[in-house]
Amino acid sequence: MKTAVCPGSFDPVTLGHIDIIERAAELFDRVIVIVMSNSAKKAMFSVSERVELLNRCIKGKNIEVDTYDGLLVNYAREKNAVAIVKGLRAVSDFDYEFQQALTNKSLLPQIETVFLTARGKNMFLSSSMVKEVCSLGGDISQFVPNEISEDVIKRCKGEKNYDQY
Ligand code: ADP
């Protein structure tokens, strides 16, 4: 059984993330989406909220959601994963992702990083862009799954009763 991990912040999950996760689930037997909590980015949703939002949108039977705050390769080794799946948007993603892929390969030679190219319509879609558009009152329906748009809108309007990590 071939397992892949899909790491990210998912703050919040976007249609771009869902597209990558579902395509990964076609390629691998098991996909573990990992909400990484060690990101330097300031979060809008807590890790447990992000997991709940992801679980609401993910349909595939071979997809699971988990959290991790350590070194990604240690998690991958623990789960016997053969690949780290990342989405590539514009050229701007490339330099950083390339560095990360090479570092992860040095730390765990048996792991491959697999890049899936973003769909054209998602090329410029990021969680930060969603938060910016939403906080300025813009329509986010084409950027995030229907299942979570109300939560994002409420949070943008300032219902900040979430636990910051
Ligand atoms: P963001 O940059 O939106 O905060 P994350 O850190 O949560 O995203 O990214 C998790 C993974 O999803 C990364 O591999 C990232 O490149 C990928 N990804 C994010 N947005 C998109 C998108 N619009 N299309 C394809 N892949 C994406």
Question: What this model shows, in words?
Answer:
By secondary structure, this protein is α/β, with parallel strands linked by helices. It has helices spanning 15-27, 47-57, 72-78, 91-107, 127-135, 146-156; strands at 3-8, 30-36, 63-68, 81-88, 112-117. A 5-stranded parallel beta sheet has the order 3-2-1-4-5, with helices on both faces. Strand 1 (3-8), helix 1 (15-27) and strand 2 form a beta-alpha-beta unit. The longest helix is centred in the middle third of the chain and has 17 residues, at 91-107. The N and C termini lie far apart (34 Å). 32% of the residues are buried. The mean pLDDT is 92. The protein binds adenosine-5'-diphosphate.
Strand content: 15-25%
Low-confidence stretches: none
Q: What's the arrangement of strands in the largest beta sheet?
A: 3-2-1-4-5
Radius of gyration over C-alpha positions, nearest whole angstrom: 15 Å
Continuous helix count? 6
Percent of residues in helices comes to: 40-55%
Gap between N and C termini: 34 Å
Main β-sheet description: 5 strands, parallel
Order of helices and strands: EHEHEHEHEHH
Distinct ligands: adenosine-5'-diphosphate
**Average pLDDT taken over every residue:** 92
Query: What is the number of strand segments?
Result: 5
What coarse outline follows from CA principal-axis ratios? globular
Structural class assignment:
alpha/beta
